[in-house]
Design brief:
With 734 residues, the chain is mainly α. Helices cover 64% and strands 1% of the residues. The protein has a two-stranded antiparallel sheet. A hairpin with a 2-residue loop joins strand 1 and strand 2. It holds the Pfam family DUF3689. InterPro entries: TRPC4AP. This is Transient receptor potential cation channel, subfamily C, member 4 associated protein a. GO terms for molecular function: phosphatase binding.
Length: 734
């Protein structure tokens, strides 16, 4: 009896001690904020005891066991069946009832979501099985209205969205508008991670599905607007959505001291992320923000008011804000490239996105990262640092904003707009209509506009930096469209041409991506501009430099063909201005124009341009080679020399000992050109603006070349001997 009494006493004492310990931990957590936060942190025997008294039907115990078995290296054999149970628990809560509505505690919901997320990460097939349940996916969005469960819900949704074969319809989300409007700024930024999947067209990859043939075939199948396009419209219909994104994109990054110590922190940001405590701190920060949002306003001040933020390194505070901006800028960029582009442009101008980004520009640190700063192309998956991702996304946004749109002049400030007007006045040419119509209340503030700032950092960038690629693309987009002499002179005065030539000829740059972006930019900068060719000749002032320049061009015509097109077009225009003494002088002195004026050199480019592509390998990247070859032949036709060029191509075939091969291929390419560009949905203005050749003349020339009349000296068929003719083959055949 005594022994039994001692055992009973010890058991009761342990329970009282355990209860006291649990109670003290909870009280301590209320005071310090670092106590127990999850039900899975409670001892198993305490859960068993409470389960009996509270009639929880064993669910917390099941939750605890699944949580323990859902981590890496755990026994996952029973996970799938238990996951189904947890889905049912979430969707049909029965733990307690308020009135007639069954509810679940926030803590239990968070635990269920966390377990499901762990299962998705650790157990093969769980994510796909959850993604296949449309009802569950839609239900998860309803949980995002609860501030306390937002983070766990958003994390799980993002994982599920990544494996779904079909994009969800945002319109199917219950009360989408009110849900989005209920988010504070931090939640909206996190929600953008999910939106980025729903508004982007599926990546077609880098295989044969990426070809124009495959794309055109897919467009025929999907004649109606895609789900991504429909989702973009749904977002634009939410009141205040774009305005809030603009505020998120342009709010100032947490103030930094600018000391060398801070720069070192930023450089070593990934070493901080390797520290699990810092990751926990970031997670806790997000939880605190969610809890604060129920009692605090959603303005930008709430981000810096979190007490935990003051315990983090300054670099982590900046990274935290930058990670938000990456997602927001991506969404804005996608919307700018969509069918509602003009509507988005009007809204971005109204909410002063560009002036806001200009004010933010000096906060970005334009320097090469020692290890993680590698080249990233437009569709390449990127696992680089948030700081680098932010700057690349920033540049992509500028590219999308400027490309073929009159709002591009918002990238300048008032003084720079006046400079453009003065350039036009001095040259005795009318101002561009878009410049005249620019609302000066919406342009950049400060001493420099965004475009000028971009050129300044571009000239200081390391030779092979991937930023060079995106910087050049952004500046090139400003020049695209109808050629503007004033725009070109504005950039020439800032030393851009000399900088580009240095990178191509003297810098030792080996990156094909960077070189391609500079070739394209150089073409837009020099097109039809006699001053640019004069400056070119001043820089390329030796045969050695000129041969190096030609070597770079010839090393990859796919990369440089847009520059070749610019030179051919410019030469043709200059040759028609024999009365202009300045033009005649440059024509006689410029090595580049003299080289292209030799017909054998133009024929050499034409032969290679046709030879490096065929219908089956045409992509968005290399179709420009076909259009450049057409430009050469259109200009030849205009001057009555088309038969000479076609005859020369035939002679080249025979000298290379494969008669018919080149001209048959070109015939197939032109048939595809008709199929591709004469589609009623195709926008032909780009071809017309880039060449200053009416699109009707493009169509006429292709028709003439494809004529079946063998008596026509301008028809390709005339120059292919009967034994080698293969013109009627379906170009869809491989």
């Amino acid at each position: 009896m005594a022994a039994n009494g001692q055992r009973l006493y010890r058991t009761q004492t342990r329970r009282r001690t355990r209860s006291k310990n649990i109670l003290s931990k909870i009280k301590n957590g209320q005071i310090t904020g670092s106590g127990m936060t999850r039900g899975t942190q409670f001892p198993m025997d305490l859960l068993e005891e409470r389960d009996k008294k509270a009639r929880w039907q064993g669910i917390p115990l099941l939750l605890r066991r699944l949580h323990e078995s859902s981590h890496i290296n755990s026994d996952l054999s029973k996970t799938h069946s238990v996951v189904k149970l947890f889905v049912e628990i979430l969707m049909r809560p029965t733990l307690s009832i308020q009135g007639s509505v069954p509810i679940m505690s926030d803590d239990l919901i968070k635990d269920c979501l966390s377990v499901l997320y762990n299962c998705c990460i650790c157990t093969e097939g769980v994510t796909k099985s959850l993604a296949a349940r449309d009802d569950f996916v839609m239900f998860l969005f309803t949980l995002m209205s609860n501030k306390k469960t937002f983070l766990q819900t958003a994390t799980l949704i993002e994982d599920i969205m990544g494996v779904r074969k079909e994009v969800i319809r945002l319109e199917d989300i219950p009360n989408l508008g009110s849900l989005v409007q209920s988010f504070n700024q931090q939640q909206l930024a996190n929600f953008c991670r999910i939106l980025s999947v729903t508004i982007s067209e599926p990546d077609m990859g880098v295989d044969d599905k990426h070809t124009l043939l495959a794309r055109n075939a897919q467009q025929k199948i999907n004649a109606s607007p895609s789900r991504a396009e429909s989702n973009q419209v749904a977002l634009l219909n939410i009141p205040g959505f774009i305005e809030r994104l603009c505020k998120l994109a342009t709010r100032k990054v947490s103030e930094a001291s600018g000391t060398s110590a801070l720069l070192q922190e930023l450089e070593d940001w990934h070493s901080w992320l390797d520290n699990a405590l810092v990751l926990d701190a970031l997670m806790q920060m997000a939880i605190e923000e969610a809890e604060q949002s129920s009692t605090e306003s959603s303005d930008e001040g709430s981000l810096s008011s979190s007490p935990l933020r003051h315990t983090l390194p300054q670099s982590m505070k900046i990274v935290h804000e930058i990670m938000y901006k990456v997602e927001v800028l991506y969404v804005l960029c996608v919307l700018l490239m969509g069918r509602q582009r003009n509507q988005v442009h009007r809204m971005l101008a109204e909410y002063r996105l560009i002036p806001g980004l200009n004010n933010l520009f000096d906060k970005l640190i334009w320097r090469r990262q020692p290890s993680s700063h590698t080249l990233h192309r437009q569709n390449q998956n990127c696992d680089c640092s948030p700081e680098i991702s932010f700057k690349i996304q920033f540049l992509r946004l500028l590219q999308s904003f400027s490309d073929h749109h009159e709002n591009k002049y918002l990238l300048l400030n008032g003084q720079e707009l006046n400079e453009l007007s003065a350039i036009s006045l001095k040259a005795n040419i009318p101002e561009v209509e878009a410049l005249v119509n620019t609302d000066r209340n919406l342009v950049c503030d400060g001493k420099k506009g965004l475009l000028t700032r971009l050129i300044s950092v571009m000239k200081k960038e390391p030779v092979d930096s991937s930023f060079r690629f995106w910087q050049a693309r952004a500046v090139e987009s400003f020049l695209r469209g109808a050629t503007s002499y004033a725009d070109q002179i504005f950039l020439l005065k800032r030393g851009l041409l000399e900088h580009i030539l240095f990178c191509i000829i003297d810098s030792g740059c080996k990156s094909r991506d960077v070189l391609q972006s500079y070739f394209d930019l150089l073409g837009e900068l020099m097109k039809f501009n006699i001053d640019a060719f004069k400056r070119f000749n001043k820089y390329v002032n030796t045969d050695e430099k000129f041969q190096m320049f030609l070597s770079q061009i010839n090393s990859s015509l796919v990369d440089s063909n847009m520059l070749v097109r610019c030179i051919v077009l410019s030469l043709d225009r200059f040759e028609g201005q024999a009365e202009d003494i300045k033009v005649v002088e440059v024509l006689s002195e410029c090595r580049l124009l003299s080289y292209m004026s030799q017909v054998e050199n133009r024929l050499s480019f034409l032969f290679r341009l046709i030879n490096i592509i065929n219908v089956q390998t045409l992509t968005q990247e290399n179709v420009s080679c076909l259009n450049t070859s057409l430009v050469v032949l259109m200009l030849a036709r205009w001057r009555g020399k088309l038969p000479f060029y076609l005859g020369a191509l035939k002679e080249k075939e025979y000298s290379e000992k494969y008669p018919g091969c080149l001209l048959n291929n070109f015939h197939h390419l032109l048939r595809f050109w008709q199929h591709h560009y004469l589609n009623k949905d195709k926008d032909s203005t780009c071809l017309e603006n880039s060449s200053c050749i009416p699109f009707t003349y493009w169509k006429e020339t292709v028709t003439v070349l494809l004529s079946s009349d063998r008596s026509s000296l301008c028809a390709i068929a005339t120059y292919i001997d009967e034994a080698y003719r293969d013109l009627e083959r379906d170009f869809m055949e491989v």
